[in-house]
Specification:
There is one protein chain. With 384 residues, the protein is an alpha/beta fold. The chain contains eleven helices and 13 strands. It has a five-stranded mixed β-sheet, with helices on both faces. Strand 9 and strand 10 form a beta hairpin. Helix 2 crosses helix 3 and helix 6 crosses helix 11. The radius of gyration is 24 Å and the shape is globular.
């Protein structure tokens, strides 16, 4: 007899388990039978039955007896066990920390948003992270394990989890917190990423970019940023620096030529120097603040136009704090996008080449933490 390679058998069993679990996680609140799962996964019913036994024993799946009413024995039904663990996702920035705690099905258990103290060291950042984590976890069953921890930082993060460079918080450059978080939460997967990418991931998984293959996601805030999506995946670049704006030593005269910070040029000596404060005042009817935001949107339009020409996206998504005032943000962007599409042979705008302009689904306070939750789910070891 030919010897069986047990490593191959083990690999196949894990693959079948992962396929079945992915199917259940795709609809985490839906109860299904073995037969229904066999159809969806294209696995045999005996295979699905064996896999479900393993998954239920591992705690990833729960089951209930079938409902009577038909002929024969009622079929047992299965569902993903979202209560088998928790995920903590925190978006960290110099002006705000936004934290979200959810179960494995993505159901929010707690949300906390706090303005941090002045943070100048990695230890101070971790300390404030712990405060938010404790506040989020205070209201849940302490017996439920924390399966994953996600932290979004304001800039590109290298392979070791260090913040490489940050325009928003330059004093945080080089912050290295992953090992410390792993020590604090040894049973959890720890994921460190870039807040801007988490924002876009939220839109891809459950927001304005669901099903979109090629897109540009622009965020209007104190420091605007853009994330590119090609083939349904976020473009990070060779070293994770795609979309990161370099620091400049002085500002050029051509606003359309660079992504340099616009605070000094646009805000000037305006009494309010925070985007959130200016937006709030504009919503209250302050004409001076409306004028500042209008200048800001018009100054960013040429930059967005450049990205649209370079990427030729299906969709342009606009998010950030200026999302609260779309009548200010959208007109200059739409005009720039139309201009970037060029003219057809008749001298008209070629409508077929225009990307659809959409508003982001998630608010600034929810985008990063939501994307971090999705990223953390992929970092969990689901093997049985």
């Amino acid at each position: 007899m030919t010897a069986i390679d047990t490593s191959d058998v083990t690999s196949l069993r894990r693959l079948n388990a992962q396929t079945t679990l992915d199917c259940l996680r795709a609809e985490p609140t839906t109860w299904v039978t073995v037969r229904e799962l066999a159809v969806r996964t294209k696995l045999s019913r005996p295979t699905v039955s064996r896999v479900l036994e393993d998954l239920e024993q591992a705690g990833w799946v729960r089951s209930v007896a079938g409902l009577p009413g038909g002929t024969g024995r009622p079929a047992r039904r299965f569902c993903f066990n979202g209560a088998a663990g928790l995920i903590l996702s925190v978006e960290a920035g110099p002006f705000a920390f936004n934290a979200m705690l959810a179960d494995l099905a993505g159901t929010t258990q707690a949300e906390v948003s706090r303005r941090p103290p002045v943070i100048t060291t990695s230890e101070e950042l971790v300390g404030f992270f712990q405060e938010l984590a404790a506040e989020c976890l205070a209201g849940v069953d302490p017996g439920i394990p924390l399966r994953a921890v996600s932290l979004g930082l304001p800039g590109p993060v290298d392979e070791q989890g260090r913040l490489r460079v940050s325009i928003t918080a330059p004093e945080w450059d080089g912050f290295d917190v992953r090992d410390t978080l792993r020590g604090l939460y040894p049973e959890a997967a720890v994921l460190i990423g870039r807040t801007g990418e988490f924002d876009t991931l939220a839109e891809i998984t459950s927001g304005a970019l669901v099903g979109v293959k090629n897109a540009v996601h622009v965020t209007f805030s104190d420091r605007c940023r853009a994330t590119l999506v090609v083939g349904g995946r976020i473009v990070r670049g060779a070293h994770g620096m795609a979309g990161a704006r370099p620091r400049t030593h002085g500002v050029g005269k051509n606003l359309a030529a660079s992504w340099t910070p616009l605070r000094d040029l646009i805000y000037g000596d305006h009494p309010r120097q925070r985007m959130s404060e200016i937006v709030a005042a504009a919503q209250e009817g302050s004409e001076a603040d409306v004028e500042v935001l209008t200048r800001y949107a018009h100054a960013l339009a040429p930059r967005v136009s450049f990205l649209v020409r370079a990427v030729a996206p299906e969709v342009l998504v606009v998010g950030g704090q200026l999302l609260a005032l779309p009548d200010i943000a959208l007109p200059p962007l739409v005009a720039a996008v139309r201009a970037s599409a060029g003219l057809d042979r008749r001298g008209s705008v070629d409508e077929s080449r225009l990307p659809e302009v959409r508003l982001a689904h998630y608010s600034p306070a929810h985008a990063g933490p939501t994307g971090g939750l999705h990223a953390a789910l992929s970092a969990i070891d689901w093997t049985v």
